[in-house]
Specification:
By secondary structure, this protein is an alpha+beta fold. The chain has one domain. It is 20% helix and 36% strand.
Length: 69
């Protein structure tokens, strides 16, 4: 799989990850890795925060959208 953003820019780079939001393949230059806190619980409210965060990978475009919102 190739990096979609690089392909749009006319470059040929291998993808190293897939964005969890849009599903686009991204290279190391165009990914953002963040540790996300998880909450465990039942409806209607989360009961407790889990001890360890979970790594998530987003493309830079989806990351910017989340940062704005």
């Amino acid at each position: 799989m190739k990096c979609y953003i690089c392909a749009e820019q006319g470059k040929d780079s291998d993808a190293v990850a897939i964005c969890i939001v849009c599903g686009m393949g991204v290279c190391m230059e165009h990914l953002v890795r963040e540790e996300v806190e998880l909450w465990r619980g039942d409806y209607p409210f989360p009961a407790k925060k889990l001890k360890k965060p979970v790594p998530r990978i987003l493309c830079v475009i989806c990351h910017e959208a989340y940062e704005e919102g």
